[in-house]
Amino acid sequence: MLNIDRITSNPNIMNGKACIRGMRITVALVLNLIANGLSKAEILAEYPALQAEDIDQCFNYAAYLAEEELYTTQKVS
After folding, report:
1. Are the beta carbons of 52 and 40 closer than 8 angstroms?
2. Rounded to an integer, what distance in angstroms lies between the CA atom of residue 71 and that of residue 53?
3. Does any domain span residue 71?
4. How many domains does the chain have?
5. 20 neighbors 56 (Cβ within 8 angstroms)
6. Which of 44, 37, 50 is nearest to 6 (CA)?
7. Beta-bridge partners for 13
């Protein structure tokens, strides 16, 4: 079961991008920080409003999106 109750989207906050608990911290920002080598502890120190579970849910949300099936409209030769 997907648990992403901390991931929110509001058209008035960051143009509707997926954010954490209605804050102006996007899921994409957190994932980019991790992808660029920051540890969870470093992110939590830099963004004190975040909690460890927020970061965990970013991963859950990303994993959910990655499972989406892609369909091509181009012919494969």
Report:
1. yes
2. 33
3. no
4. 1
5. no
6. 50
7. 10
